[in-house]
Amino acid sequence: MPKRISIEPHLSLSELEQRYRQAKDVVERSHYQIIWLLASGKSSQEVSQVTGYSLSWIYELVWGYNRIGPESLGDKRHEHQGADTLLNDIQQAQLWQALQSPPVEGGFWNGQKVANWMSELLGHSVSRQRGWEYLKAMKLRLRVPRPSHQEADIFEQEEWKKKLATTVNQVQEEHPGAEVEVWTMDEHRVGLKPIIRRIWVDEWTVPVASVYWRFKWLWLYGFVHPQSGETYWWILPFVNTEIFNQVLIDFAQHFNLGENKYVVLALDQAGWHTAGKLQIPKGIYIIEMPSHSPELQPAERLWPLTNEPLANRTFENLDELEEVLFHRCQQLLQQQDLVRGLTNFHWWPQVAV
Predict the structure, then answer these.
(1) Range of the domain at 169
(2) 266 and 279 inside one domain
(3) Who is most buried in 128, 218, 278, 313, counting CB within 10 A?
């Protein structure tokens, strides 16, 4: 049987219907319609279908109405236009100053901790919602920090960006009639150790991912041309100089590098990228990135894309995983706009075609 919800008799059925039909505000009208229909004996599922509101929102609306009454209905945003109704200009400046340091109770700032700070300042209780509103009003955003190695040298990184642009110009001057492109590449280890990712589910579901931990690995070699979003892939069992030499040879042959086309290839300082036995094919100019600087590497943006079909899955063996990874790389070959949007950093050299 569809679930029917009990409605407290704050208003009679006829009063609810009258307020629903006379309401001028769209939100208030919908709220009274929901309470009226439920009070009339309709199930929550039927009300959801009629009004378009989700079950979870209907339950929240009923919870407020049963405990508070008609005052809980309607668009409460009309009652306080913005977050400046609680704090004056001086108090807002004090809040901004407080937000520049960690909260007294430790951890990180959130709506509740801002509300606690405001409550102490104003001498009365402030809801968590108002704390969140002030965070938003001050143009603050909840974002995950970009990792930066403590040994990274920001000045060296800026100099390298200039060096990359200079190298591209030099290659163009040395080969005035040839096509020049700026590529980069990196390697990514994937294996039978599960990759767990968050997924969207309804509020009543606890997602479960079947896992079977084994430490067996493959290496995905990913080349990307950020300006166009073009990619080139190898799936191999190891990383070493001998294999990397073969990958470079194949890359040069695949794109016909040589007399009429040259590639400036940006690499990190992995041992097999800098080994004395490294053999660089004609048509490739390698430029090494500064150490401890993954944020300079556009190819790092490829791995969340290649991990997508592997996440929350268990593979019986590496062959099965390789098959899925192979098809994913084939898809990404055709999704150049997506790749370009992720990898074409604003400072990356743009070469005229």
Answers:
(1) 154-343
(2) yes
(3) 218
Residues 58, 94: one domain?
no
Q: Specify burial of residue 351 (Cβ count, 10 A radius: 0-12, 13-18, 19+).
A: middle
pTM for the complete prediction?
A: 0.65
Ranges in the chain, pLDDT < 50? 1-2, 80-84
How many whole angstroms separate alpha carbon 211 and alpha carbon 194? 6
> Strand, coil or helix: what is 107?
coil
Dihedral-angle region of residue 66 (phi above 0 means left; psi in -120 to 50 means alpha; beta otherwise): alpha
DSSP state string for 283-329: TEEEEEPPTT-GGG-GGGGGHHHHHGGGBT---SSHHHHHHHHHHHH
From CA 294, how far away is CA 133, in angstroms rounded? Answer: 35
Regarding whether 199 and 55 lie in a shared domain, the answer is: no
Residue 53 tokens read as: 């509101």
Q: Residue 235: beta bridge partners?
A: 220
Report the greatest alpha carbon distance in the chain. 88
Is 238 found in the same domain as 194? yes
Q: How distant is the alpha carbon of residue 219 from its chain centre? A: 24
Q: What is the pLDDT of residues 142-155, one digit of tens each?
A: 887 777 777 888 89
Picking from 59, 78, 97, the residue at the C-terminal end of a domain is: 78
- How far apart CA 5 and CA 15 sit, in angstroms, is 19
The pLDDT tens digits for 298-307 are 999 999 999 9
User: Is the residue at 179 inside a domain?
Assistant: yes
